[in-house]
Amino acid sequence: MAHFHTRAPLSRRTFLRGAGAAIALPWLEAMAPRTAFARGAGAAPPLRFAFLFVPNGKWMDGWTPEREGADFELSPTLEPLAARKRDLLVLSGLAQRNAEALGDGPGDHARSAACFLTGAHPRKTEGANILNGVSIDQLLAERIGRETRLPSLELGCEAPLTSGNCDSGYSCAYSCNISWKSATTPQLKELDPRLVFERLFADEGLAPEERARRLARRRSLLDHAREEAARLKVELGATDRRKLDEYLTAVREIERRIERAEADAAASPTPAPSRPAGIPADFGEHARVLCDLLVLAFQADLTRVATHMLANDGNNKSFKWLGVSDGHHEVSHHGQEPGKIAKLEKIDRFHVELLAHLLARMAAVSEGDGTLLDHSLVLYGAGISDGNAHNHDELPILLAGRGGGAVEPGRHLRFPRGTPLCNLYLSLLDRAGVREAAFGDSRGRLEGI
Fold first, then answer.
1. Which of 23, 16, 21, 20 is closest to 1 using CA atoms?
2. How far is CA 358 from CA 58, 83, 295, 386, in A?
3. Cα–Cα dist 257/264, whole Å
4. Which of these, 7, 119, 170, 178, is most buried using a 10 Å CB contact count?
5. Are the CB atoms for 396 and 58 separated by under 8 Å?
6. What is the domain partition of the chain in residue ranges?
7. In this structure, what DSSP letter does residue 97 have?
8. Quick count: other Cβ atoms within 10 Å of Cβ 352?
9. What does the alpha-carbon distance between residue 32 and residue 429 come to, in Å, rounded to a whole number?
10. Residue 370: beta bridge partners?
11. How many CB atoms lie within 10 A of CB 208?
12. Residues contacting 138, CB < 8 A, separation 6+
């Protein structure tokens, strides 16, 4: 069992271990070098990157702020982000040209998702000979992922299909995945919060049958690490003890939510055979619990790169709890009908509310001289602008966080129409210390962010 003391800084790689548990710690003052701590400063927290994707575009009149600069007002769709306005960069005018047909005919939804983080034009095929490009998250994972237990974390609310025809002759691999490890290999996302939780906090060396027995007994992972946590607390200052308690409480709260979803699935008179028991029946809760797991993964420095695909592109989910019984894809083809536009705006706002939830959780985590959000960059957007027109310029793109001081948020910036989104990606790579001459169809860095 590990021995903790106060004379040397606590390792950032310290885990609370027990039978089957390996719970990484959040950022604590005890991890700062003693000389830095004496000066009232700590070692700089690492920079994290998250990429959130939404399908089918937006109603852009409801998304785009009217004014530019720091005195912009949030648009109706962006109003749920009011508490985070100073942490936002709304970026207008960006485009993904390689999501356009370029002679390949229909298939904008497949190209939208495939191109979103790669900037590549996917080969039109529904067979095994898929060809796309490496996504920015996987380039980051390759360059900085060795510093954490998980190089990257891929999350999503809908199955990551890899075969079949999902959009006008394009493989489902394109419309169902935004993360690509290589030009021929999508990095598949995980839907089941239970599996994500176990991946983050369970001992990797635990035999599957032992893990199954623990789950069957409904024992919390934290029960196994309780003695180790008590030993550590003795060695910590009051602030660190409070932070550790808050963190472990958050871990347990998410574990309870997953257990509740599993219990609801077991009690359901009509169980869905294709739905893992750990996935909540409520879509909003499913998306939020994955967001909260992402926050814990960043907080514990288990990974510094994550993607969250809220739905596959072309998704036609209905949002009955919003009063929208029509499918999302259906209302995105609004044909300028006021009724459909009103329904689309409700869906758009709901997706922004999920982003607001994620950012609020990140802003609530104190870390070093700021918050987890201060030390992160969160990109949110779609690969289609207007779902009715299927255009891939004037994309709805938002960047949140301060990147440890690497960006200046609190503004709406407009770039010349057709400016490559990959210019932004090149600038984000720079912030990570990953210097590339080009990425996708970039024509330079995105200046002014």
1. 16
2. 20, 12, 8, 25
3. 11
4. 178
5. yes
6. 1-43+196-278, 47-191+304-449
7. G
8. 24
9. 26
10. 367
11. 7
12. 152, 179, 180, 181, 187
Q: Which helix (H) or strand (E) holds 412?
A: strand 411-420
| Amino acid in position 46 | P
Position 299: which residue type? Q
Q: What is the pLDDT along the chain (449 residues), one digit of tens a residue?
A: 444 444 578 888 889 987 788 899 998 988 877 554 444 445 689 999 999 999 999 999 999 999 999 999 999 999 999 999 999 999 999 999 999 999 999 999 999 999 999 999 999 999 999 999 999 999 999 999 999 999 999 999 999 988 899 999 999 999 999 999 999 999 999 999 999 999 999 887 666 666 666 666 667 888 878 888 999 999 999 999 999 999 999 999 999 999 999 999 888 877 666 778 889 999 999 999 999 999 999 999 999 999 999 999 999 999 999 999 999 999 999 999 999 999 999 999 999 999 999 999 999 999 989 999 999 999 999 999 999 999 999 999 999 999 999 999 999 999 999 999 999 999 999 999 999 999 999 999 999 99
- For Cα atoms 308, 309, 314, give the angle at the middle one, nearest 5 degrees: 170
pTM: 0.94
Rg (Cα) of the chain, in Å, rounded? 22
Residue 446 corresponds to which amino acid? L
Region of 420 please: left (phi>0), alpha (psi -120 to 50) or beta. beta
Instruction: Report residue 300 as tokens.
Output: 């514990």
DSSP string, 372-398: TTTTEEEEEE-S-SBTTTT--SS--EE
Under 8 Å between Cβ of 384 and 329: no
Rounded Cα distance, 89 and 86, in Å:
8
